[in-house]
Prior knowledge:
This protein is an alpha+beta fold.
Amino acid sequence: MRQFKRAKRGYLEAGAVLALVFFFLVFFPCIQVLAAEPGWVRQEDGWYYYMEDGSPGRGWVENGGKSYYIQEGGKLFCGGLTPDGYYVDNDGAWYQRKEAILGGEFTAPPRALLLTEKWPGTEALTSLKTIVSQGFSGNRTIKISDNAVEYVAGESVEGTQSQSKTYGDYNVINRDNVDAVLSGRFPISSSESSAESAKKQKAAVLLGLYREATQGRFRIDIHIPLDGDVTSKYQASSYDYGVFRVLAYQVSSTPEILADSLYSAWEEDNQWGISRQKWVQAGDCLVLYTSGDGYGRFYITPAWKGN
């Protein structure tokens, strides 16, 4: 009888231990057991990172030329903005985007640009200005200032008017009349003298990026059709699309995502759901759309709340 009681007590104690373990696994799944080996460990709910002493990692970890953000408890953060405002992809990787566009090398900012920061690619933009001007014999260029980057037609590098007739302000040019305007076929009123017409001559903005600091946002205006399938660098549309991508590189650390969302809204089926009613996240930015007279206007602001 005494032996039976001891055995029974042993079973009860073992059962109590198992119940306690089960309780912690169910109600405290975030508690991590020290890993046998440091580094990356694959678990059912994702990747975890452990330090040399086997404890869970925390913060940024570099691996293979990319950076990864480790949450409290050691789990890898994937697909979104980290608490300090950096965008990581679905694999959890952050890396600084770089791309050769129209013969220039463009590097994205580390994270979404602050309204108080300078354009990150000023030197590359200056080189692009020369490339564009040469490609169009001075009839197109890039205008750069602290608060705007504009891709314009009808104004030479020196700032004098070219032979191509473009009239009125940038709202005149739109998707319907762009070919006529840029080729000089835009009609002139017979009641206007040549002197009056000359006064009206002004560079037409094809694409524009603007800093609206008082509103806490950037703005991209698109006045022309864009063709992302162009392969020949000698086609005008390849310059148009290239400059469009360059503008995305000025404000976003994920320019490929920002450019794709704007392009889809302007030319395709708007698969990102960019709308007039609410801000939509695209990479590290929030985007809002409003239409103009034949052109598209997109407001852009950093998605990170710390900005």
